[in-house]
Structure formats: structure tokens, C-alpha cells
Amino acid sequence: MTGRPMAGSKGGGKGRGGKGGSGKSSRAGGLGGSRQATVRVKTARRRTTASTRWLQRQLNDPYVAEAKRRGLRSRAAFKLIELDDRYEFLKPGMAVVDLGCAPGGWTQVAADRVRAGAPGGGKVVGVDLLETEPVADATMLQADFMEDDTPDRLTALLDGPADAVLSDMAANTTGHAQTDHLRIIGLAETALDFAFQVLAPGGVFVAKVFSGGAEASLLTLLKRNFDKVAHFKPPASRKESAEMYVVALGYRGTEQDTGRE
User: How far apart are CA 32 and CA 62, in angstroms?
Assistant: First the structure.
């Protein structure tokens, strides 16, 4: 996300794809063993070496190709697909909040899996500082989640409790591993504070974190307030990335003593 470092946005895709459309994702929605021919990118005038490497990685990334084929906004959509395939937390009729939703890949997957827009189906509300093109059967809010009034605006759009709060937010990176780790843990903790306000008993919380040690306090909070807490690095996360996800299932309904001042 552009803007303030702590504003947070979903990573994993340049380009937004088409307007709307859920990009249908089956429960077994990950990639198979398909392979594609390697594309080599020549260095071009006005293109930096780093840009050339990024372009070559994108062109040779099977998740990028599959996302395009399925009409998904970004390769990051497969991270949620793989998380849900493993833990099966998205169910028809659920109300879901997607924090840091741009460009909309997670929102597409969530809307499909809770059957948003169908009779008796669920509801999905996404928020991001960046403008996000509409996603079919979802409500999109352009706002900075770190602003004081944004949680209240999200709560009003939900018009009731949430069954899942999903956060793929990531702060702008500095290149300093410990600083970046602390920033993303700060975003995850803020997302969890919001989840405590809106989650119904039995609810789900999923957030991106970076490995690095400072997540211990976050895990303590999760274990005090949820029945099951797990770490998972989806296959769609790049091997060189330090990102992983915490998945907390079975919110107990009232926030327990956090141990924080």
C-alpha cells in the first residue's frame, strides 16, 4: 500500500484484473503439478535490473498465470484458498471482513466461499487505503484502517457481528528485517483489537505475520481468546519470503486478560 507506513495493504499482485467476478475457487483450489515453459526477459532501456528480475519472476510464476486464468485479481488469492483448504474456516452464510483488501483477490475468494449474494448466503466487507475495483457481491470501503473512525465504519457496514476477520495487511518495507517484522506485528495486533470488537463467538481470525520473535505477545493473546491457534505458510507464499499466517479458530466470545497495560 502506498501512503503511511502503517496503513497496510495486501501484497501479491500488480494489476487489478477485471471488474467484479468471484473467480470461482473450489475447496481444493490450489495449483496442481502443471508446469509452464520458462520465459526469459531481456534487459531493456529504461528498465532497471531489479525491474527486469521482477518481470521475469512474474512471467514465470505459475500462481500468476493461474490467477489470470481464473479471473482472480492477484496470486495472493491462492494464499487464502490454501489457508481455507487446510483449516476450512470459510463457510456459507458467514460475515467476513477483509482488511487490506486491494487488489481484491482475497475478497473474491471469501465472497465465493461464503456464497455472498446467494439466498441465505454470507456477507463480505473489504477495506483498503487504495481504491479497489468492485468485487461482485462484496462491499468495498476505501479508507485507512489505522484511522480512528474506520473500525466504526466497518462495523456499520457489517450491520451485525462478524464470523471472520482476515488481514493480509503489510506495512511498507524498509529493508531492515527487524523493523519490518515489528511493523507487520503491529498491524496484526491492531487487526486483532478490531476482531475482539466485532467477532461473534466461534469466530475466526487470520493475519499475516513475519517470523522474527515479536509475535510471541500476539500468540499469547490468541491462545487466551481462541480454542485453536496455528501457524501456516501457504505454498503460494514465495519461498524467500519471511511471511506466514496465524490462524485462530473458535473465538471464545469475550476478550480475556491480555496482559497489556
Answer: 10
Report the pLDDT value the prediction gives residue 62, as an integer from 0 to 100. Answer: 84
Question: How much is the pTM?
Answer: 0.79
Length of the chain, in residues:
261
Assign 240 a pLDDT band (cuts: 50, 70, 90).
Answer: confident
Q: So where are the chain's domains?
A: 73-251
Superfamily for the 73-251 domain: Vaccinia Virus protein VP39 (3.40.50.150)
Measured CA to CA, the distance from residue 82 to residue 110 in angstroms comes to 12
Q: Among 123, 196, 193, which Cα is nearest to 160's?
A: 123
- In the residue annotation, 208 being an active-site residue is answered as yes
**Cell matching residue 72:** 482472480
For 128-139, the pLDDT digits (tens) are 999 999 999 999
- CA-based R_g, the chain, Å: 18
CB atoms within 10 A of CB 206: 28
CA dihedral over 19, 3, 185, 173, signed as positive or negative: positive
Residue 88's φ and ψ, nearest 5 degrees, are: 50, 55
CA distances from 183 to 52, 65, 120, 172 (A): 28, 31, 39, 9
Strands (E), the chain: 9-10, 95-99, 123-128, 139-142, 162-167, 169-170, 199-210, 226-232, 243-251
Active-site residue, from 24, 208, 228, 239: 208
**What pLDDT is recorded for position 208?**
94
Q: Percent of the chain at pLDDT above 70?
A: 73
